């Protein structure tokens, strides 16, 4: 597979290389901007469908910057998968919630990169799903407000970082991103970045999304989600898992449930395109 020279002409692109694994071309991409590097690993199966995996909090003291969650999950899908690394992690910072710095908002940069990658590899953003858990759920929903074409599956997301219970992690991120002791002390001009409703309000767009959460994740169901649900005006569907599937609190939902949900969402997108094509054919005999 060749890469168009236009990708190399983007000023902040610093690295891209590929390798072949079975029938999948694996691309490793790095974009540099300001003092941060954004790392992506693309499992390209061809076609125009894409699932984007956003990062959760990582284990501390990682020594390499390009850390990805759920890489093995690429084998569960027949479409291409793009894995995103958190540009703000360090040996002490487990997650940055893509806050960036006072110089730039990393969520905006992430959306720009996803649009560029989709254009380069011919992915249809209308057939793209952003998925993430906890921090990754926040990032997926926030990023989708900049990419109105995409759909989101958010697993137990934060809706406001300031409410997150792991205060040590948020304090380290706040110091790294904004130079303050806690996100509550974030300068007012950047405070909207911490809240999904405030991001949606500033963007003037509420993403189309499905949220999935365990009933025993009390903090998420009782603290994080109510304002998000109220603000979403029905555009964000919430599915609360009960019984044995809903046990475990704020822990990962099983791979089987998440992959089944993502594949159902893919089928729904395909059916929508099929219905549009049939409707078009009924009216004029062919679809443009």
List the helices and strands and how they pair.
Layout lengths: L4 H4 L4 E9 L2 E10 L2 E9 L5 E4 L26 E5 L21 H16 L6 E6 L1 H10 L6 E5 L11 H12 L17 H8 L4 E7 L3 H15 L3 E6 L13 H30 L4
Helix pairs in contact: 2-3
Structure, explained:
- The chain is α/β, with parallel strands linked by helices and 288 residues long.
- The protein has one domain: 3-Layer(aba) Sandwich (Rossmann fold).
- It is built from 7 helices and 9 strands; from the N terminus they run αβββββαβαβααβαβα.
- The chain has a 9-stranded mixed β-sheet, sandwiched between helices.
- β1 and β2 form a beta hairpin.
- α2 crosses α3.
- The N terminus and C terminus are likely disordered.
Query: What is the CATH C level class, in words?
Result: Alpha Beta
Q: How much strand?
A: 15-25%
Helix/sheet category: alpha/beta
What is the spatial order of strands in the main beta sheet? 1-2-3-5-4-6-7-8-9
* Unreliable parts: 1-11, 280-288
Please work out how many helical segments DSSP would assign: 7
- Share in helix: 25-40%
Shape-level CATH architecture: 3-Layer(aba) Sandwich
Whole-number average pLDDT?
88
Number of strands: 9
């Amino acid at each position: 597979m060749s890469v168009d020279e236009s990708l190399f002409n983007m000023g902040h692109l610093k690295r891209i290389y590929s390798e072949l694994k079975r029938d999948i071309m694996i691309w490793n991409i790095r974009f540099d901007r300001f003092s941060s590097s954004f790392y992506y690993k693309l499992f390209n199966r061809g076609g125009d469908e894409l699932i984007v995996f956003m990062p959760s909090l990582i284990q501390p003291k990682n020594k390499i910057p390009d850390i990805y969650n759920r890489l093995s999950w690429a084998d569960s899908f027949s479409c291409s998968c793009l894995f995103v690394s958190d540009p703000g992690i360090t040996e002490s910072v487990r997650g940055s919630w893509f806050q960036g710095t006072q110089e730039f908002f990393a969520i905006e940069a992430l959306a720009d990169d996803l649009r560029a990658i989709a254009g380069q590899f011919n992915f249809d953003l209308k057939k793209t799903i952003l998925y993430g858990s906890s921090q990754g759920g926040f990032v997926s929903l926030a990023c989708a407000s900049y990419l109105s074409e995409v759909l989101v599956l958010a697993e137990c997301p934060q809706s406001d970082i300031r409410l997150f219970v792991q205060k040590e992690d948020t304090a380290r991120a706040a110091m790294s991103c904004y130079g303050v002791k806690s996100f509550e002390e974030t300068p007012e001009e950047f405070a909207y970045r911490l809240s999904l409703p405030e991001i949606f309000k500033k963007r003037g767009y509420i993403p189309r999304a499905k949220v999935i959460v365990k009933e025993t994740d009390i903090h998420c169901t009782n603290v994080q989600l109510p304002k998000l649900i109220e603000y979403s005006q029905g555009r964000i569907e919430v599915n609360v898992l009960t019984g044995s599937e809903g046990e475990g609190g704020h822990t990962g939902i099983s791979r089987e449930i998440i992959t089944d949900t993502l594949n159902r969402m893919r089928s729904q997108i395909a059916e929508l395109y099929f219905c549009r094509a049939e409707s078009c054919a009924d009216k004029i005999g062919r679809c443009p």
